[in-house]
Design a protein that fits this description.
mainly alpha, 12 helices, globular
Length: 246
């Protein structure tokens, strides 16, 4: 698939477009996001193996949400069933992406563990991939060296993961090719990702007030923005014009 280099300001546009999709079906998006969190929590109750299993299936869940975004953008009804649509269409490829991502995480965890970064390791092996959550959880109560080393190794892995599920379900790419393409596209658009990351970080801080109710909006926005970023970087000009009006 052809990759575009977009302006830094598009990092904010991805969030704006994500909110446009969210407000079309807010209750369904909240239900989908809560379902992902609950599934992660239930699997997390299984010592060690549960969180690893969640990492394996996370790309398929992400792909399902992307398929929901595409359906919604095309005027179809968003459904809870979209969460598992990725398993039906490209299950093996998506789980393979999860396996590659998990392997990378374990290698990084081993390196960080050698230099005393046990809290960061726990953050890296729990829940859905998120640079913000890994950074904030991992920094608590430890020196900066393991954090810096961990983030230096983790960011390229997250870049390789970011677009990979969408590239598999929309571009029918093989897992390794999808991750290579995702990494290249992310590096080519690093300025937009910086704007996106900083803006999301600030919005998540604001979401804690009052009583963290803002997370009911911010968590769905985080999921949907996978899709809006993908459409901007990989979509054709006509798709981008449609997305910009959302």
């Amino acid at each position: 698939m052809k990759t575009r280099i977009v302006p830094a300001s598009h990092g904010w546009l991805w969030i704006k477009q994500a909110f446009g999709l969210f407000k079309q079906s807010p209750l369904i998006w909240i239900a989908l996001s809560v379902s992902v969190i609950l599934l992660g929590a239930l699997l997390g109750m299984i010592p060690f193996l549960g969180s690893l299993l969640f990492q394996l299936i996370a790309p398929a869940l992400t792909a399902g949400l992307m398929l929901g975004c595409r359906a919604q953008q095309q005027g179809e009804e968003l459904e809870i069933a979209h969460l598992f649509a990725g398993f039906k269409s490209h299950g093996a490829q998506l789980v393979t992406i999860g396996g590659i991502y998990l392997t990378g995480m374990l290698i990084i965890a081993a390196i960080v563990g050698v230099i005393g970064g046990e809290p960061l390791i726990r953050a890296m092996t729990e829940g859905h991939p998120s640079a913000d959550s890994v950074a904030t959880t991992g920094m608590a109560g430890m020196s900066m060296l393991p954090v810096l080393v961990g983030m230096t190794l983790l960011i390229p892995l997250l870049m390789a993961y970011w677009f990979a599920p969408a590239l598999v379900v929309f571009g029918n790419m093989r897992p390794v090719d999808a991750m290579k393409t995702s990494l290249a596209a992310s590096l080519n658009n690093v300025s937009a990702f910086l704007v996106y990351g900083l803006t999301m970080f600030l919005l998540f801080i604001l979401a804690t007030l009052p009583l963290m109710l803002g997370f009911l909006v911010m968590i769905p926005l985080a999921f949907i923005s996978y899709y809006t970023a993908f459409e901007d970087v990989f979509g054709d000009d006509e798709i981008s014009r449609i997305s910009a009006t959302v």
